[in-house]
Write a structure and sequence with these properties.
The complex is a heterodimer. Chain A is of the alpha/beta class. Helix content of chain A is 45%, strand content 13%. Chain A folds into two domains: 39-161 and 328-395, 3-Layer(aba) Sandwich (D-Maltodextrin-Binding Protein, domain 2), CATH 3.40.190.10; 164-326 and 405-448, Periplasmic binding protein-like II (D-Maltodextrin-Binding Protein, domain 2, 3-Layer(aba) Sandwich). A two-stranded antiparallel sheet of chain B has the order 1-2. The longest helix of chain B is centred in the N-terminal third of the chain and has 52 residues, at 2-53. The chains are: A alpha/beta, B mainly alpha. Chains A and B meet through helix 1, helix 3, helix 12, helix 19 and helix 20 of A and helix 1 and helix 2 of B.
Chain lengths: 449, 324
């Protein structure tokens, strides 16, 4: 009589254990390391490289680099998988296993904090040390900063993006402006001079300061102010750093000078796609824009009808000496911790990120900023003066970036959301809003730890 | 004596009966097994996992760690978007579902009354339902663009106000509702089928009794089609609780934010007015790597959906018509 009951209990226990085991292992992936794969001794090794580039010129450029690498390392074979979005590579890394990539690149630096802290991407410091590569001397400081988290160098920069000012020289001449502005007060004055009204709208706007104006985001503007976002204690310092409040105040002031938020938003809704020939700078709807170096290639391709040039974006008047700096970001590349071929993967990553010719040829091919100091000074680089502006911004030690955080770009989203409310007048008290936003950021970081 | 016979019967019959019952149970389970396996793997397991992970710190990469009610506390008291997202989701459930059902029923009634062109109008109203949600939303975002869209241009010509549609927080949810009503084809078809099933004699009898159009609808049409209305409401509530694609696409297109470093995109444009709970599940789980908090919101969604569905089915006697 007792047997069935015991049997049922045993069955329940086994089922329960199985379910628990399933839960415990579900989605946690495999995190074993594989530093030795005998590739150094000449054994044939195949690695998989996932990247997000998809345009023909981009995939050709990366494939050319891969071919050059395989020529140098005949025993290492690279299987390239293009057009992989971050979401997909994250899922693959979560799942782990033999089908997961060995080398992964990502267009956003926001997730470095998670990749490093969760040890999804392996720490490259031992590899760098082994090969005598000093990252501080090799990579520009801002790029080095966004590719590491709390001392863990789990990724390396693979080309970068630098931000600067694009200006319409024809419109400048018509408005009697002879040179690009260097300080924000000069910039404001020029933006007003360049604005041409058209009824209750604009025929031409000097500059679109709204935070939804494509690249005119808080983080990009803050690149001109040199802020840290987080204090030494790891807590958000946006409420105590006067430079942050200064940026929001400047942006809102410029909105007022150019006609007010509602009028600007209505005009903004007439803009075409950012990454098309209908970009408002290319159509002449705005006379100045903050944008990345890639726009130089787009403008050349789209053949705009006016003269244009680039310059560093202006800096606050009280930091005039820092003129030349800018916001920087870029693509990062790392090695999956689950990879069993990390030695071969490192050889490949090392080649992509530190071989000057590889970096320069890739940068020239896809019009990005090179990501090593040597490559930035290479005579083989595209010598277009408009492109050179961005090379100089990248080399400038005062250029800055958004630091990696354990919960991705959540703190930037909090700051953006506050900015949207502040510019629209929904939040009038700047200091109270920044304090609340800092608390929100700290709560989110604590939650992620 | 009687008790003795019963005792005997109880001890003798069960052996045979038990075998028969076991066989029947086994057969039933065998027939049900495809569904049971699917239910277990695709509903029960994810549901239990979701509840389990809601009590865990889990970033999707490292092993989960038990944190008690920390995620629940974070979502309900510290995550700044939750209550706004809940409010938006409930707004859509109440307004969008009501209007979709009313509009679908109205269009169905109009088309069933047509003498000619039934096929044409049925196709005309059904076609939008076949449009992929992403494409349809993008088309709406361009048509309703306040600066360049033809709708506002036309309204301006007529001297009417030109709303900001997807760029104005007070218009964004109504604009999404318009989009949902445009794709009404699914409801129109099932309402047409049920309307054509209403016995004509009942209308004739009502007319003889002097019933007007409203009374004919109230006392003849509605009682006959009430199970279909209930079906439309229940499935509408469940679908709207999962509302994701149209809201995120409209927000992204209207905001112009592509996303990337220094230009992070979080759904809800403009000013959080299109934030819905399913978008928060994605944002927390995949953008902020906080699977635990994402699971809290998923559990909340499940509970609200169940509550709505139970309430509707209880108050309206399930999917039975007043005739049943």
């Amino acid at each position: 009589m007792h047997t069935p009951r015991r049997s049922r209990r045993a069955l329940a226990a086994v089922t329960g254990s199985a379910v628990l085991a399933l839960f415990a292992t579900a989605c946690t992936g495999t995190n074993s390391t594989g530093g030795t794969d005998d590739s150094a001794s000449g054994k044939d090794v195949s690695i998989t490289f996932w990247h997000g580039w998809s345009q023909d010129n981009e995939t050709k450029a990366i494939n050319d680099n891969v071919a050059a690498f395989e020529k140098l390392h005949p025993n290492i074979h690279v299987k390239v998988v293009a057009n992989i979005a971050d979401d997909k590579s994250e899922q693959a890394l979560r799942a782990g296993g033999p089908d997961a990539p060995d080398v992964v690149s990502s267009f956003t630096t926001d997730n470095v904090g998670k990749f490093c802290s969760a040890k999804v991407w392996t720490d490259l410091t031992p590899f760098l040390k082994k090969d005598g590569i000093d990252p501080v001397k090799t990579f520009p400081s801002a790029m080095l900063k966004y590719s590491q988290f709390e001392g863990n160098q789990c990724s390396l920069p693979l080309l970068g993006d630098a931000y600067g000012l694009y200006y319409n020289k024809t419109a400048f001449a018509a408005a009697g402006i002879t040179s690009p502005p260097k300080t924000l007060s000069e910039f404001d004055a020029d933006a007003v001079k360049l604005t041409v009204a058209n009824g209750d709208g604009y025929k031409q706007l000097g500059f679109m300061p709204d935070f939804h104006g494509y690249e005119s985001t808080p983080s990009h503007f803050l690149g001109q102010y040199g802020v840290s976002y987080f204090g030494a204690d790891g807590k958000s310092d946006i409420a105590s750093d006067p430079k942050i409040a200064a940026m929001y105040t400047w942006q809102k002031g410029l909105i007022g000078k150019l006609g007010g938020f509602d009028k600007l938003e209505k005009y903004r809704s007439s803009f075409g796609d950012e990454f098309s020939a209908k970009n408002p700078f290319e159509t002449g709807q705005v006379a100045m824009a903050i944008d990345g170096e890639w726009r130089t290639a787009s403008i050349a391709t789209d053949k705009v009808t006016f003269d244009w040039a680039t310059a560093p974006f202006p800096v606050p008047d009280d930091q005039a000496a820092t003129y030349g700096r800018g916001y920087q970001t870029g693509t990062i590349v790392g090695i999956a911790r689950s990879s069993q071929k990390q030695a071969a993967a490192w050889e490949f990553v090392k080649y992509l990120t530190t071989d000057t010719d590889a970096v320069v040829s890739f940068a020239n091919a896809i019009h990005n900023v090179p990501s090593t100091m040597d490559a930035l000074s290479s005579p083989k680089l595209d010598n277009d003066p408009n492109f050179k502006t961005f090379l100089d911004v990248a080399k400038n030690p005062a250029s800055s970036t958004t630091p990696s955080s354990i919960n991705g770009g959540a703190y930037q989203i909090s700051m953006q959301n506050f900015g949207y409310d502040f510019e629209a007048g929904k939040q009038a008290d700047l200091q109270a809003g920044l304090t609340k936003t800092a608390q929100e950021i700290d709560a989110a970081v604590t939650q992620a730890k | 004596m009687a008790l003795e016979r019963m005792t005997v019967a109880r001890t003798e019959v069960p052996a045979a009966l038990k075998r028969k019952r076991r066989r029947e149970t086994a057969r039933t389970l065998a027939f049900l097994s495809p569904w049971l396996i699917g239910f277990g793997f695709f509903f029960l397991y994810p549901l239990i996992s979701t509840v389990y992970f809601s009590f865990m710190r889990y970033d999707g990469f490292t092993a989960p760690v038990f944190t008690g009610l920390k995620n629940w506390d974070y979502v309900f008291t510290k995550y700044p978007f939750f209550w706004q997202g809940l409010q938006n989701t409930l707004w859509l459930v109440v307004v969008m579902v009501t209007l979709r059902v009313a509009f679908g029923l109205g269009i169905g009634m109009l088309i069933t009354k047509l003498k000619t062109g039934v096929g044409f109008f049925r196709t005309l109203f059904y076609l939008p339902y076949l449009a992929p949600p992403v494409a349809a939303t993008m088309a709406f975002a361009f048509l309703l663009n306040p600066g360049t869209g033809p709708v506002n241009h036309f309204l301006g010509k007529l001297g009417l106000p030109q709303p900001g549609w997807f760029t104005d927080p007070s218009w964004s949810k109504p604009a999404l509702t318009m989009l949902a009503m445009w794709g009404i084809g699914d409801l129109m078809v099932i309402f047409m089928a049920s309307l054509l099933d209403v016995p004509k004699e009942q209308y004739e009898a009502a007319e003889l009794d002097g019933a007007g159009p409203w009374q004919r609808f109230r006392y003849v049409t509605y009682p006959n089609i009430s199970p279909i209305v209930m079906f439309a409401v229940v499935t509408g509530v469940i679908q709207t609780m999962q509302y994701y694609t149209q809201a995120i696409v409209a927000g992204k297109v209207a905001s112009g934010i592509i996303g990337g470093s220094g230009q992070a995109f979080e759904p809800g444009y403009p000013h959080g007015s299109t934030w819905t709970l399913p978008q928060m599940v994605y944002s927390l789980g995949f953008q902020r790597f906080d699977t635990g908090s994402a699971c809290v919101i998923a559990v909340v969604l499940f509970v609200i959906s169940m509550a709505f569905t139970s309430l509707l089915l209880r108050r309206n006697a399930g999917f039975l018509s007043s005739e049943d």
